[in-house]
From TrEMBL:
This is Glucosamine-6-phosphate deaminase. The chain holds residues 18 to 261 of 640 of the full protein. It comes from Salegentibacter echinorum. Residues 9-228 form the Glucosamine/galactosamine-6-phosphate isomerase domain.
Length: 244
């Protein structure tokens, strides 16, 4: 779906999420959301906050799982995704703290494998992801599934691509300060979501989105694996869709 601009597109995505939450609330069920960080989803979160404050949308029955976190990373560090999600969404809505899940960047390396398995299991225990939001990195990564990731990969520790670290360097005051690793849900984890929405805005994403949507499926561009799923929607603004 291509919209005139990211403001309109973000509102549409937020409305889809709000409708899902309301449907689930009516049935007294939980809505299980997979959430993304980065600049791309920020306006979606702003609109969800507005719907909460102005229209009484409640997040009491919402359970969230974030895609990824840098490793190592302290939750209170400026660049942590825990802090990011608090600032752009969680601090402004009525979600229960115990319903928020973000990969833990403080673990000892030896504990990560068990932790990742438990993260996967937790998603399964609450009924699986109803909806997964995604952005896309310029390497074609979704979450932090960099080139070389397998289509059936699970939550795990990964090494970040050089381009990803370069793109993150502004947040960290230099590439040398960007962690070399991250914990990310796998492509297989993302695939289990009942709906997947990948959003992309601006000219700088046009070329990778063309590869992701129209290119040959390959581990070199992990987002191309989304071509395998019938539950995926790409929501783009005009500029991001300009190379299609
Ligand atoms: C990071 C995140 C991804 C995100 C990507 C794009 O690498 N781990 O989940 O999709 O950045 O970021 P942005 O939305 O800022 O372009």
């Amino acid at each position: 779906k291509v919209y005139e601009n990211k403001h309109i597109a973000s509102k549409k995505v937020a409305k889809r999420i709000a409708d899902l939450i309301k449907r689930k609330n009516e049935k007294q069920e939980n809505a299980v959301l997979g959430l993304a960080t980065g600049a791309t989803p920020v306006e979606v979160y702003e609109e969800l906050i507005r719907l909460h404050k102005e229209e009484g949308l409640s997040f009491k029955n919402v359970i969230t799982f974030n895609l990824d976190e840098y490793y190592p990373m302290k939750p209170d560090a400026k660049q942590s995704y825990v802090r990011f999600m608090d600032e752009v969404l969680f601090d402004h809505i009525d979600i229960k703290k115990e319903n928020i899940h973000i990969p833990d960047g403080t673990l000892a390396e030896d504990d990560i494998t068990d932790y990742c398995l438990a993260y996967e299991n937790k998603i399964g225990e609450v009924g699986g992801l109803d909806l997964q939001l995604l952005g896309i990195g310029r390497t074609g990564h979704i979450g932090f599934n960099e080139p070389g990731s397998a289509p059936n990969s699970g939550t795990r520790l990964v090494t970040l691509d050089d381009l990803t670290r370069r793109d993150a360097s502004r947040d960290f005051g230099g590439k040398e300060n960007v962690p070399t690793k991250a914990i990310t849900m796998g492509i297989g984890t993302i695939f289990k979501a009942r709906q997947i929405i990948l959003m992309g805005w601006n000219k700088k994403k046009a070329s990778i989105l063309k590869k992701a949507i129209e290119g040959e499926m390959s581990g070199n561009v992990p987002a191309t694996y989304l071509q395998l799923s019938e539950n995926v929607e790409f929501v783009l603004d005009r500029d991001a869709a300009s190379a299609l």
